[in-house]
Design a protein that fits this description.
With about 250 residues, the chain is mainly α. It has a domain of about 70 residues. About 75% of the residues lie in helices and about 0% in strands. Helix 2 crosses helix 3, helix 6 packs parallel to helix 8 and helix 7 runs antiparallel to helix 8. The chain is globular, with a radius of gyration of 20 Å.
Length: about 250
């Protein structure tokens, strides 16, 4: 039976910095409310380490794509081995998520060569969106983890292909502008929203907070999260990204 155990804060920080927070969570549970979200970052960073090695050793687009397809096929099988486990290995383990990343890689490759026909692009987009909503509401992720994660990743890839536009395309209406703004800061929002939520839960105990106040707190939580995410993106993420690209990615033109 899966058991929760106390994990020291230094070990939690070490796991986050060395990209095995997901393994720590599988073994000991959600050990830190705010830092637990870094489990997905651990998966991504290991992929970022493996990806250039994969490109180096395959050297062929066909071989590279074949490897990606192999990873995609292995994902559901791996999750089936851990189906329903209390440890959450079907969700948190590296191989539980790599198929989604591999689908993202294939999407990026195909996006350079494939443009959906404008005749069916819009209805296809709505069909995909409704299918994703139906899948999300169909059952908890624990019950459909074996195939649901792969299907959701595949649908996301298809949706990206449907919505791709030339790089210079500008958003014209307010809704599109808001979605673009949120999308550009989505990663910062994902990584820091639990910090805001955790601090609010300290000040307002959920069980002791009235429903009307919870609505106001929800609005305040969203506004504060977006403000903090925008500040991090503007003053940290974007400047650091620009610096890294300037120093390590040389322009060969």
């Amino acid at each position: 039976m899966f058991e929760f155990a106390e994990v020291s804060y230094p070990l939690t920080i070490f796991a986050a910095l060395t990209f095995w927070m997901n393994i720590l969570i599988i073994k000991f549970g959600w050990v830190n409310y705010a830092l637990g979200v870094l489990w997905s970052l651990s998966v991504e960073e290991v992929f970022y380490f493996v990806f250039p090695l994969l490109c180096l050793f395959t050297r062929s687009n066909k071989v590279f794509i074949a490897v990606l397809i192999g990873v995609i096929l292995y994902g559901p099988y791996f999750r089936s081995l851990h189906f329903g486990e209390e440890s959450g290995a079907y969700l948190y383990h590296y191989f539980s998520s790599f198929d989604g990343i591999a689908i993202g890689c294939l999407t990026a490759i195909f996006s350079h060569k494939y443009q959906p026909n404008w005749v069916y692009k819009k209805p296809l987009s709505w069909l995909i969106i409704l299918s994703m909503v139906a899948l999300y509401l169909y059952a908890p992720i624990k019950e459909v983890s074996t195939w649901g994660i792969s299907l959701f990743a595949l649908a996301t890839g298809l949706l990206i292909l449907c919505f791709q536009h030339p790089s210079r395309t500008q958003a014209h209406n307010l809704f599109t502008k808001v979605m673009v703004w949120l999308g550009q800061r989505s990663y910062e929002t994902y990584l820091f929203h639990l910090v805001v939520l955790g601090l609010m839960k300290v000040a307002f105990v959920p069980a002791q907070t009235e429903a009307g106040i919870k609505i106001m707190l929800l609005i305040g939580y969203l506004v504060l999260t977006f403000i903090i995410s925008a500040a991090i993106e503007k003053y940290y993420s974007t400047p650091l990204n620009s610096y890294i690209r300037k120093v390590f990615i040389k322009d060969k033109s």
